[in-house]
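task queued by scheduler; priority normal; single chain, no ligands, no partner chains; default sampling; output format set to structure tokens
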Amino acid sequence: MNERKPKVRQAILRDIRISLTVWMVLEVLCFGLMPLLGTFPLENIEAYLLPSIVIGVAGILILSFSSGAVEDALTIQERQPQIWRRRIAKFTSVLGFLGITFPMILILIQLWISIRDYEV
């Protein structure tokens, strides 16, 4: 069982690096580039930036540890506990993915509101 621990740790670290990179790119695009293009008002950035950072970091951690839980679930010999651990890990990974993509979700909501309120 101890030989599985390095694999779990490697899976967690790999997913932290990938998730952090994706989240940082989304943050720069959504809160750096979009306001410069005029698609997102600059006065709204302060209200959205802190929640985006908190939820994004939480999403990174949740997603990374859920992949470690999936890797760890493979060590269980009995089928039923393994199935439930994998289901829980999949559910938490979806929550983590939503946390990572939160900046994009905010921008899409803001764009939808702008388009909806646009008068010709």
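post-processing summary
- DSSP finds four helices and no strands in the chain.
- The chain has a mean pLDDT of 84.
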